[in-house]
Design a protein that fits this description.
The structure is a homodimer of 349-residue chains. By secondary structure, chain A is α/β, with parallel strands linked by helices. In chain A, strand 6 and strand 7 form a beta hairpin.
């Protein structure tokens, strides 16, 4: 899934180049490319489908020259993750009646690749044998309020039945979740076989399932895009978490720990990153700090910044836009982007 | 005079491009060029001499294509303003025995050009008829502690005898100076005729005068540079203010008001500049402020900056270096530059 347009990392992320296309850490690979690198160790490259907004088609093909244009599924509108997954599942179903499927966002960061690949293999083995919906749960390392949580049923081993899903909790609740040991972060990475997910859509999102079934005979043909373009506007705008995972009765979680973050905010990027003695995080650039603590500074490579007298700030520059903002006020970035778009007519979008 | 290497405007000013060569306000002309533009309205261009450090020769000729290389006087070392003026005076004396001379820094900002030119003309008329040393005094607009002050003798009119010179006063004293109305800022712009300044050097800096007199026959010849290069290291490192103006008995001040600032610091640049309702100063770039007051923000043209939660800061970027620093701590910039030079071996000098 590579269709997000998140503005929370503005000015790094822009409409024409959202987060998944960015190389946050100066590694030379974007988050999308790193995601591809991980999955291509488990999944044959020809079996990888990228679902994205039509405006990112060229960017996808540029960043992933290993895949062919027919592996890129183009959504004409944003309709959240349930239609996105339904689209890919329809494609697969037209080719085969037996498949193991992994669904994953393309803009997450995973730092323990070996553990991740082991987890995937364990999960694949499980869903190959069982008609279940499996999600990867992450052992929490802190009482994070920015993630959804999964409560697992009692039991042994890493594979557990899901008891409840909880949206982002407040700080108090997050602390309780963290301490009980029964809760895992919801990574948004799912595994299931074709039959299980097909049944789930028919049962839980029957209207959407029906809409996609009307495309029978068109998938993987020149008529597919036209069909999708026409039916998408009428698709329900709903996430797969809300539409399927939270309602299904056969949901399992594979409890894992592979250094995961959804990099949803500057704050989570800060948390994930290596800090100096004054707990400043410097990304890509050179930074020299005086009387400054707890900042995250991300400027283009080759830049030097001297920071004096700042505590708990974001200093981020990309593509001719500099943002200086209190870390604790980062939820206002969306407002800044909107304001700036109005003021400068989209020039810095 | 265009030989300064000030680091107080770092990262705008660098060793290879100090303040006088910069276009602070995005007008398309550097401070040096603006100075040239002003004086060329009063002085024939062929009579303009630029004294600078030898490393800036090419930069001067590039920025001032109107002058020829023999109008650029190259100092081999930094020796403050007294040798600098003595060098130019020696050149002039070798050509003529009668001249009216204006000495001026090339890195000041003057915003009321008409008033300035009127002042120059009035001063020139006075020094043509009188063997005096005339300095332009600026009517103070605030109790500034960053400038030297001139106390004037009682009298009428703009031309007054000087009573005392005072170095940068503390805040209390500056307030007294400001309130009495007897004190003017010392602009460092001087007018005199050749005879007056020649006599002053012979009387007050006889050793220096003697050293330059040894160059007789070499000025304006191919031997000049070699002579200067050899004698300069032995020249006393002293300012013309301290060496001559504060000691001479025939010093006058022309009390003026032409919107002058020496732009010595970010603070003075801030004071001089137009402010928005939150008293933020934005130079060259586009800036959007939230919860931010009293800042000076100077980024390259075409850049956008969103500033949130900053009060009384300098945010300045030039040539791949960004500085964020409390305005009240700007005297530390010199230290930052030194540190950075050590850390990065002069890369960001």
């Amino acid at each position: 899934m590579a269709g997000g347009v998140g503005s929370r990392f503005w000015p790094f992320s822009r409409n024409d180049r959202p987060k998944q296309f960015l190389d946050f850490f100066g590694t030379g690979r974007s988050l999308l490319q790193l995601t591809f690198d991980r999955f291509s160790q488990v999944v044959p490259v020809k079996n990888i489908l990228v679902v994205t907004n039509h405006i990112y088609k060229d960017l996808i093909l540029e960043q992933l020259p290993e895949i062919s244009p027919d592996q890129v599924l183009l959504e004409p509108h944003r309709r959240n993750t349930a239609p996105c997954v339904a689209y890919a599942v329809s494609r697969i179903k037209a080719l085969t009646d037996k498949a193991n499927i992994i669904v994953a966002p393309s803009d997450h960061l995973i730092v323990k690749e070996g553990a991740f690949l082991d987890t995937l293999r364990e999960g694949l083995e499980f869903i190959e044998r069982n008609n279940v919906l499996l999600t990867l749960g992450i052992q929490p390392s802190r009482p994070e309020t920015g993630y959804g949580y999964i409560q697992v049923a009692e039991g042994d081993g890493a594979l557990r039945k899901v008891k409840t899903f909880t949206e982002k909790p407040n700080a108090e609740l997050a602390q309780v979740f963290f301490e009980t040991g029964e809760f895992y972060w919801n990574s948004g990475i799912f595994l299931w076989n074709l039959q299980a997910i097909d049944e789930a859509y028919r049962t839980l999102l029957p209207e959407m399932a029906h809409k996609f079934e009307e495309g029978r005979g068109k998938w993987n043909t020149p008529d597919e895009q036209k069909f999708v373009d026409e039916m998408y506007p009428a698709c329900q705008n709903i996430s797969i978490d809300y539409g399927i995972m939270e309602k299904a009765s056969n949901v399992y979680v594979l409890c894992s720990d592979f250094g995961w973050t959804d990099l949803g905010t500057w704050g989570s990027l800060y948390e994930m990153s290596e800090k100096d003695e004054q707990r400043n995080v410097t990304l890509k650039c050179q930074a020299v700090y005086y009387d400054s603590e707890n900042n995250v500074v991300a400027l283009p490579e080759g830049k030097l910044v001297v920071v004096q007298g700042l505590d708990d700030y974001i200093v981020a520059e990309s593509d001719n836009v500099l943002l200086i903002c209190k870390k604790s006020d980062e939820q206002r970035i969306r407002q800044f982007v909107n304001d700036v778009n109005v003021m400068f007519e989209g020039e810095y979008n």
